[in-house]
Amino acid sequence: MNTVVRSLQEREYVTPRGYHILYSDVKDAIRIMNKKHYACEWVNYDTRNPKINLEGYFWLEDVYFNSRYKQIDADVMYFEFLVEKYIQTCNDKKIDYDILPFLEDDMSFDDVSKFVDRKINTVKKYYYKLPRLKKQNYYYLEGKRYMPVEVAEELCMKYFKHRYLKYLEELYIELKKFLSEQGVEVAYE
């Protein structure tokens, strides 16, 4: 872990509050990373000092110690990068893969509310912030107002990023597992 601290210090990264990075800052960052993304298995606690793999280290740089973006935005961008890298590896190696879509069907406001775990009024508030042409694209079925899947996806990607991030993380884990089963390693250049 000392090498991680040294590397971050040499590259002039700072804490979210603008201070020089210390060992305790990295330790806290690893704890938060492991709590938020435990399924990614970026940290190995077999020894006294935790060992971080390359993707975990890049998460520290690109998300936790990134002062240019909000943490949720940086997290989403990082997982989009990882998914893109894994898809590119599959394409380069000519490996067929399946990617489950973010959303499969049109959704009512109630469905979106349950999906993002927010109140229906919160969903409606953000829905009305979408561009006018998007909002006009709806229909009623059995007394419920439905929005097309594209509109529901945009709503989630723009205003309910925690749900989109969860999808990206699950997609990343599936692609990583799939490539591992194929015996393929992802190269970072």
Please give the alpha-carbon distance between the first and last residues: 22 Å
Mind describing the biggest β-sheet?
3 strands, antiparallel
> If helices are DSSP runs of H or I spanning 4 or more residues, what is the number of helices?
9
Alpha carbon gyration radius = 20 Å
Number of strands: 5
Strand order of the largest sheet: 3-5-4
Order of helices and strands: HHEEHHEHHHEEHH
Mean pLDDT: 91
Strand content of the residues, in percent? 5-15%
Textual characterization of the structure:
This protein has 189 residues and is mainly alpha-helical. Helices cover 58% and strands 7% of the residues. The protein contains 9 helices and 5 strands. The protein has helices at 2-10, 23-36, 54-64, 71-92, 109-116, 120-127, 132-135, 149-159, 161-182; strands spanning 43-44, 51-52, 107-108, 139-141, 144-147. Strands 3-5-4 form a 3-stranded antiparallel β-sheet. A two-stranded antiparallel ribbon has the order 1-2. α2 (23-36) crosses α3 (54-64) and α5 packs across α6. The longest helix has 22 residues, at 71-92. The model has no long low-confidence stretch (mean pLDDT 91).
Give keywords.
single chain, 189 residues, mainly alpha, three-stranded antiparallel beta sheet, two-stranded antiparallel sheet, 5 strands, globular
In short:
The protein is mainly alpha-helical. The protein has nine helices and five strands; from the N terminus they run ααββααβαααββαα.
Write the layout of secondary structure elements.
Blueprint: H1 2-10, H2 23-36, E1 43-44, E2 51-52, H3 54-64, H4 71-92, E3 107-108, H5 109-116, H6 120-127, H7 132-135, E4 139-141, E5 144-147, H8 149-159, H9 161-182
Antiparallel strand pairs: 1-2, 3-5, 4-5
